[in-house]
Amino acid sequence: MDNWQGQSACALGRGIGAGDIDPVDLVHAVFDAIDAHPHAARIYVRQTRDRALAEAEAARARAKNGVRRGLLDGVPISWKDLFDSAGVATEAGSQLLAGRVPARDAEALARATNAGLVCLGKTHLSELAFSGLGTNPAYGNMTDPLPGTPPNIHDPAWVPGGSSSGAAASVAQRLAAAGIGSDTGGSIRIPAAFNDLVGFKPGYGRISTRGAVPLCERFDTVGPLCRTVEDAAHLVAAMGGDPAPDLAGADLTGRHLAILSPYTDDAEPAPKAAFEGACDRLAAAGARITPFASDAPAEAIRLAAALIPGEAYGIWRDVIEAAPDRIYARIRDRFRAGADVSAPDYVAAWRRLMEVRAEWLAETAAFDAVILPTVACLPAGIDRLMADADYYVDRNLLTLRNTRIGNLLDLCSLTLPTGSPATGLMFFAPPGQEGRLLRLGRAAEIALT
Predict the structure, then answer these.
(1) Are the C-beta atoms of 149 and 382 separated by less than 8 Å?
(2) With contact defined as beta carbons under 8 Å apart, do 427 and 256 qualify?
(3) Are residues 369 and 422 in the same domain?
C-alpha cells in the first residue's frame, strides 16, 4: 500500500471503486506513515484509530457489495481540531478548552462520514483559530511553539501558515489524502499556499459550521485543503450535501480575469514573481487578463478593525478573562482589541460593509474572477516571530491581508500552487458561484501544471 502517498483523494476513491485499493489496508498504511513520521505529534493533536478502522471496514463492505456512497467513500482525511467529534476531545488549540469532549460530531464531519469519508484524527491549529501564521505555543509552555506548530513542507524553520496549519501539514507531509479546515480570514488558503496545496473557501454558509468551535460566526467558513481542484469539488459536495460540479472540459479560452491592484503590485518579490509567471501561463491558455483597482478591499479591511475583534471578543471574553494566563499573550491581545469596540460602531461597520459588498459585486460583474497572490509574502521564520512581538503583529497582518478580502466581501475563493515554492494564485468569485469557480480553477490548474 506504499503507492497511496501523493495520490489525490479522488484517485484513491477511484482505486477503491475499481477494487485496486482496500480501504482497510489504506487506513493501516496511513497510520503506519504517521507512526514513522518524525513530526507526527506536531501535526495530529490526536488520532481516531478505532473510528477510522471501523469506518474503513464499512467502506470495504460497501465496495464489495457495489453500494458505495460516492467517489470518496473509504478515503481517509484529517480534521482541524475545532470540529466537534463525538467522544473525542476538541480543544481548538487552546488550554482554555482542555478536556472539552463533545457528545456529537460537527455537522460537516457528520455529513462527510455519511458520504463514506474516513476520519483519521484531529490536527493542530493556531490557538482558537486567531492567527494566519500557524504557530501555537499554547501546546508547549507558552514560550516553545514547536509542540503545537506543524512543520512547513519547505523548511521546518518556517511557519506552516494558519490557522489550519495541521490540516495543511497532514496533506503536504503525506499523512492524509486531504484535510478539512476553517477559514475566517484566510485560514485555509494561507497554509495551502505556504505548503503548495489547493485550498478552497466556499461562500459564507455554503457548508454548515454547526458544531465547529467559532472564532467569528458571521465570517467563519468550512473548506478543504487538498491536492487537486477535483478533490476540493468532491469534498465540498460531501460536506454540503450537493452534487459535485462537472469539471470535464474546463477551458480558459475567453475567460476574463482581473488582476487586483495594489494587492499584487506591492507583494514581496518571490510571491509577485510567482504570480506574474502564473498569469503568463493563464494568458497563454486563452485567458484575457485585465488590471483592476477598487476601493472596496481597503474599506472592508478598515471596517474589519471593529468587526473581527468585536465579535471574537464578544464570543470569548468570559472564557478568556476567567483564565487569561491560559491563552498565549499575542492571541489574547488580538481578542482584547475587541474590548474597545462599541455596539454603535459595530452596527455601523456592518451596515457599511454590506454596502461595500454590493459595490464590489457591481464593479466586478464583467469578470469571471478577480486574481491576486494568495499571500503577499513568504512564510516567516518561527524563531524571529517568537522573539519579536512587533514583527509577529506586522507579519500576521501582511500574511492575512490578501485572503481576508474574500471573507470580508463574502466571496468564494480558491488558491492554487503556482509551481514556485510556498506561493499561491488566488481567485475570487461572487458567493453562490462555487461550482463555476471550481470549473475555472480546474482550467487554471491544467494551465499551471
Answers:
(1) yes
(2) no
(3) yes
Query: What's the pLDDT band for 140 if we cut at 50, 70, 90?
Result: confident
Name the DSSP letter for residue 104.
Answer: S
Clarify whether 294 is annotated catalytic: no
For this structure, is 122 an active site residue?
Answer: no
Sheet hosting strand 118-123, strand order edge to edge: 44-47, 118-123, 76-80, 179-183, 221-226, 198-201, 412-417, 424-429, 369-373, 256-261, 288-293
Does 149 map to a domain? Answer: yes
Is there a domain that residue 349 lies in?
no
pTM for the predicted model, two decimal places? 0.98
Cα–Cα distance measured from residue 449 to residue 444, given in angstroms and rounded to the nearest whole number: 9
Number of domains in the chain: 2
Q: Are residues 100 and 190 in the same domain?
A: yes
pLDDT tier, 139 (very low <50, low <70, confident <90, very high otherwise): confident
Q: Which domain holds residue 324?
A: 298-340
Q: Are residues 243 and 256 in the same domain?
A: yes
Asked if the model's pLDDT at residue 113 lies above 80, the reply is yes
Q: Are residues 389 and 267 in the same domain?
A: yes
Active site residue 8: no
Question: Angle CA(358)–CA(359)–CA(362) in degrees, nearest 5?
Answer: 90
Co-location of 160 and 109 in the same domain: yes
Q: Tens of pLDDT along 115-129? A: 999 999 999 999 999
Catalytic residue among 80, 164, 165, 294: 80
Tell me the one-letter amino acid at 24. Answer: V
The active-site residue out of 8, 85, 94, 163 is 163
Q: Are residues 242 and 367 in the same domain?
A: yes
- What are the pLDDT digits (tens) for 294-335? 999 999 999 999 999 999 999 999 999 999 999 999 999 999
